[in-house]
Design goal:
With about 210 residues, the chain is an alpha+beta fold. The chain has one domain (about 35-195). It has helices at about 1-30, 45-55, 120-140, and strands at about 35-40, 40, 65-70, 75-80, 90-100, 105-115, 145-155, 155-165, 170-175, 190-195. Strands 3-4-5-6-10-9-8-7 form an 8-stranded antiparallel β-sheet, with helices on one face. Strands 1-2 form a two-stranded antiparallel ribbon.
Length: about 210
């Protein structure tokens, strides 16, 4: 009887050890996801690199890039206008944001905007597109407890997915101007994909502490 108990105990300890080893091996073999950019537009690239890639990768776009300086963040923004872009319905824009200090790519905003208030069919297309984007990013190996899903933040506005990596990078997929269980907004309907290199310490202009 003692031998049986000893054998069972040893077997349980062996199984626990094997499970722990397998978990440790899985954690080593599957590194967590890093937000590095959008397509071939990679964080850390300069404006000329991004300008060249936008023209190469999106030949269907308006050939004229909108080049401006954001008045608040003092960051340079290059915006490309497209007649269509998967997976969203209709026209879209890709805006590339450069650090105020580094002058390197720090964020990308992709926006599908309906002309005025979307019809029910347009809303459905936007919702389906947001679900496709969310599925793509949710499938990545994010760090534990660093993702959220389906958060209604205001009438007509829903954050479909967010993910934060271990280095401060982040992804957000947001729907605006669509019908939610809490009502709908009066503004234009849009789907927005935002990718940032560092959500905790972005490279934007800040006033000095003794400015006032």
């Amino acid at each position: 009887m003692l031998l049986i108990q000893s054998g069972v105990s040893a077997q349980a300890q062996t199984m626990d050890s094997q499970s722990a080893s397998a978990a440790a091996a899985a954690s080593v073999q599957t590194p967590s996801f890093r937000v590095e950019g959008y397509g071939r537009l990679r964080f850390g690239m300069d404006a000329e690199q991004i300008r060249s890639l936008l023209r190469l990768d999106f030949p269907q776009a308006n050939p004229v890039l909108i080049d401006r300086i954001d008045a608040i963040s003092r960051s340079r923004v290059l915006t490309l206008e497209l007649p269509a872009l998967d997976p969203g319905p209709g026209a879209a824009t890709i805006s590339c944001v450069f650090g105020a200090t580094s002058q390197r790519l720090i964020a990308v905003n992709v926006i599908w905007l309906a002309a005025g208030k979307a019809s029910q069919t347009q809303e459905t297309l936007l919702i389906n597109a947001s679900a496709k984007l969310a599925k793509t990013y949710a499938a990545q190996p994010w760090p534990l407890f660093n993702t959220t899903y389906g958060t209604v933040v205001a009438p007509g506005t829903s954050v479909v997915f967010t993910g934060h990596d271990d280095a401060g990078g982040a992804v957000e997929i947001k729907l605006q101007g669509v019908t939610t269980p809490f009502g709908s907004s009066l503004g234009p309907s849009s789907l927005r994909l935002t990718l940032v290199a560092n959500s905790t310490r972005p490279d934007i202009y800040r006033l000095a502490a003794d400015s006032f």
